[in-house]
Amino acid sequence: MLRPRRVSQWLRLSWWVPLTCLGAIWAAWFLLAPPTKHRLVIGAGQASGDSYRFCVALREVMREHDSSVDLDVLETAGSEQNVVWLEQRKIDLATVQADVAMTTTATWVATLFDDVYLLFARHGSGIASVADLRGRRIVVPPIGSGQHTSFEFLLRHYGVALDDLETLAMTDHEAIDAADAGLIDGIFHVRALNNPDVMKLAAEAPLDLVPIEQAAALHLRSPALEPAAIPRGALVGHPPEPGTDLPTVLVQRLLLAQEDLDPVAVQEVSRFLFEYRREILLRSQIAGTLTGDQAAVTAHDLPIHAGTRRYLERERPPFIIEQADFIALMMSFIVLAGSGAVSLKQQIDARQKNLADEFTHRIIRLFRDGKTAETRTDVRHVQAAMMETLTEAIAHLDEDRITVEGYSFFSMTWQAVDAALRDLKRELPEERTQDENGGA
């Protein structure tokens, strides 16, 4: 039978058993539980476009490497719809041409690749520039895409209205057949140069690239556009297409995110974009210009998403380490200045203490003189000297030439000596006058 004391001890100890079990369970869950899985929807444009192909490659690479983010690639009409849907929160991420109007809530994640303006003209059509498109039948990207917006912008610059020509919507395969049959005069695209559909178009259709000139002027109207050149033979090697270096304009394809999208998820996406770029390149063939250059963000007046910033600055040392030399120099100056201040303060304190000690010693010397006094008059002379010393000490205290502590010690000494002299004066006789001395 357990004694009451042992029962009480056992009951107190038994509380630790469930607490220990709960702690072990929590630790196991924290260490062994799988990371939170994030599901993000990305608006990727048309399924035949570069952006869609790129996003699919990114999704495959992330899944193969067990990423904590699962990408859902959504086909959309293009950049303009992506921007609207990003604002409406129908999607989390969006691929967008840099020359499309952005919303205030869009944030930059990455610059994916470079697109170029491509204008193809059918052999013998007589189209040598954008100004020659009046009255022609041109295959253009669908309305709602960034490419269509770029085409309208290009026409306006050359003084051509959209109603001045007939625009058609076709797939690249349909466009090749239509060009062979002479049913169209040209095709406009905004795509990467190494896009396989563009290369197939240049190789199989009776089409030639048309130069897009005045790139510097186009840049003035739309800063997202940059002068560029299509190298000779970039699309077809033999016979080379184009036959010579052709001027055109370049626009970057951006990856944007909602401003308040989970930074952890965006950081994971950024990590795969830059650490697995080679694998994405091999799958999509268009990721060669993938960049995390923050200068590109400044050009588009876009804020950097917090998750992307966290990734880009992951290897940046803390401020105190980054500025270690400057901080050490400042600390040296502070130590030297502090040491000088302390030394100066010590000198001032020593000077003040010496002055207070001098007043104290003067009082002690006066006390010695008082002890040798033979009459009360002699004592009064000593007391008068003490009052002069006290007055002088008070003046020095007001001028901060002696410390309060030094004056307090002096004051205590002065009061003690003054009390001793008063007692001594009572014991001494008054000084005799001259008449009294003569009568005696």
Question: How would you describe this structure to a colleague?
Answer:
- The chain has 440 residues and is of the alpha/beta class.
- The chain has two domains: 38-316, D-Maltodextrin-Binding Protein, domain 2 (3-Layer(aba) Sandwich), CATH 3.40.190; 325-432, Methane Monooxygenase Hydroxylase, Chain G, domain 1 (Up-down Bundle), CATH 1.20.58.
- It is 52% helix and 15% strand.
- It has 17 helices and ten strands.
- The protein has helices at 4-14, 16-32, 50-64, 79-87, 146-157, 172-180, 196-204, 215-221, 263-275, 277-284, 294-300, 306-312, 319-322, 324-371, 376-398, 404-427, 434-439, and strands at 38-43, 69-74, 93-97, 106-122, 137-139, 166-168, 186-191, 207-209, 226-230, 246-258.
- Strands 1, 2, 3, 4, 5, 6, 7, 8, 9 and 10 form a ten-stranded mixed sheet that branches.
- Strand 5, helix 5 and strand 6 (166-168) form a beta-alpha-beta unit.
- Helix 3 (50-64) crosses helix 10 and helix 15 runs antiparallel to helix 16 (404-427).
